[in-house]
Amino acid sequence: MITPGRRRFLYSTTAAMGAVTVGFGLSTVFKALTPTADFVNLEPIDFSGLEPGQGFTVLVRGKPLFIRHLLPSEFEEERSRDLLSLLDNDARNRNVPAGKLASVENRVFGSYFIGWGICPRLGCVPLSDSGDFGGWFCPCSAAHFDKVGRIHKGPFSRNLAIPRYVVLSDTSISVPRDDQAWLSPT
Question: Rounded to the nearest 5 degrees, what angle is found at the Cα of 119, between the Cα atoms of 118 and 123?
Answer without folding.
Answer: 75
